[in-house]
Specification:
- The chain is of the alpha/beta class.
- Helices cover 36% and strands 18% of the residues.
- The chain has a domain of 106 residues: 3-Layer(aba) Sandwich (Rossmann fold).
- The strands form 2 sheets. It has a 5-stranded parallel beta sheet, sandwiched between helices. A two-stranded antiparallel sheet has the order 5-6.
- Strand 1, helix 1 and strand 2 form a beta-alpha-beta unit.
- The two termini are 14 Å apart.
- The relative contact order is 0.20.
- About 9% of the residues have low confidence.
Length: 163
């Protein structure tokens, strides 16, 4: 599993990816940086997870998300998580998802934190560098993530998570 994100040197991140990764957690901008220089191929991706889709759209990442999706095979499973359901999120969901199933937790008419959702932060220090920034993972709906991760490993598939 590798983590790539802006604000950090590209070289070490690229070297880690070139060593091989079944799972890449990436910000849209940095993943596009690597796609543009043809250093990453997404042709074997079978799961795409868009976490905090509303925030990514608020931050202007829609063009990068669309470029990434265009590099991924159409035969994939896409999971999209969003705290809100504004018009922009509905539009991109309509464009990217095929026969989607929508699961709402809590009252969809009010924007409030749902107490039945557990958020866990796990920090794992790298044995090589001691750098914890790359290993900081926020896992939303912990059981679902654990299931997706375990299924991916069990079936030997590649997953790219855009966060």
């Amino acid at each position: 599993m590798q983590c790539v994100y802006g604000g950090a040197p590209k070289g070490p991140q690229l070297r880690d990816i070139e060593r091989g990764a079944d799972i890449i957690i990436a910000t849209p901008g940095r993943l596009n940086d690597f796609l543009e220089v043809k250093k990453v191929s997404l042709k074997q991706v079978s799961y795409l997870v868009l976490d905090e889709a509303d925030r990514m759209l608020d931050m202007g990442f829609e063009p990068q998300i669309r470029k990434i999706v265009n590099e991924i095979p159409n035969q994939r499973q896409t999971l999209m998580y969003t705290a809100t359901w504004p018009k922009e999120v509905r539009k991109i969901a309509g464009d990217l998802l095929v026969d989607p199933v929508q699961v709402n937790i809590g009252n969809t008419d009010e924007l409030a934190a749902n107490k039945s959702i557990t958020q866990v932060i796990m920090i794992h220090a790298s044995e090589k560098s001691g750098n914890t920034a790359c290993h900081l993972l926020m896992i939303t709906m912990l059981l679902l993530w654990k299931f997706v991760y375990e299924e991916a490993l069990k079936n030997g598939v590649c997953i790219y998570v855009i966060h």
